[in-house]
Amino acid sequence: DLAESLTQGSGAAAKALAWLAHETITLDGLVARVDEEVCVGCGECAAVCPFQALEMVGEGKKQKARVISAACKGCGVCAGSCPTGAIIPAGFTDEMILAQIDEALAVNPEKKILAFCCNWCSYAGADFAGVSRLAYPPQVRIIRTLCAGRIHPRFILHAFERGAGQVLVSGCHPPGDCHYISGNLRAQERVEKLRPKLAKRGIDPSRLRLAWISTTEGRVFQQIIREMAEALERGQPQGSSGLS
């Protein structure tokens, strides 16, 4: 439709002019950085970044990842794929998240549900359940990340190593609701790849759950946590941690 196309084009041009009208542009402070001493130049981060905010510089063994600050949104999807921990997202470092896991599971970890929630949807959905007074089991411990794509498989393994009864990875509904375009799909890929590895370690894969929860789905969050808590109460086979 010509009229609709012209309207959309005019809207896009207006947005561009709004940016061009300023001599300087203020960027979001949540920008990732690369520890070049740890980076092995595998290129995995650049391959998964939904904003093409990473580039590989150098050649051969000297190749390293570099963040394009103007394009980076700080989502952490790159860090969720980094095999060496060389990507350091502002405010959501590996050390911070691992410390939260340790604290959440410090007492009676086998009775706890550790829930990784993305800031924009599932965390807001959990908050909506709270303000709506939708009661859910108290043994859930929530760890907030900007995006489900920030959740590295080693966080999940660390939780099971610490004895977590169950682990939930939650985010925005696919395919189009993710605030960071494809972060939820990356999270889904990692969870599915991790399941057989859990089984090999003697950990029941059903203890790891993936769920999509929007900002208004407080009842969905409530129901999921209830189901996971009921599984724990039934004495669902937990398996050993499989880790040492």
UniProtKB/TrEMBL annotation:
Residue ranges constituting the 4Fe-4S ferredoxin-type domain according to the UniProt record: 30-59, 63-92
Record's keyword terms, sorted: 4Fe-4S, Iron, Iron-sulfur, Metal-binding, Oxidoreductase
Any one GO molecular function term: oxidoreductase activity
Pfam families in the record: Fer4_21 (PF14697), FlpD (PF02662)
Entry keyword annotation includes 4Fe-4S: yes
Name of this chain's protein: Hydrogenase iron-sulfur subunit
Record lineage: Bacteria, Pseudomonadati, Thermodesulfobacteriota, Desulfobaccia, Desulfobaccales
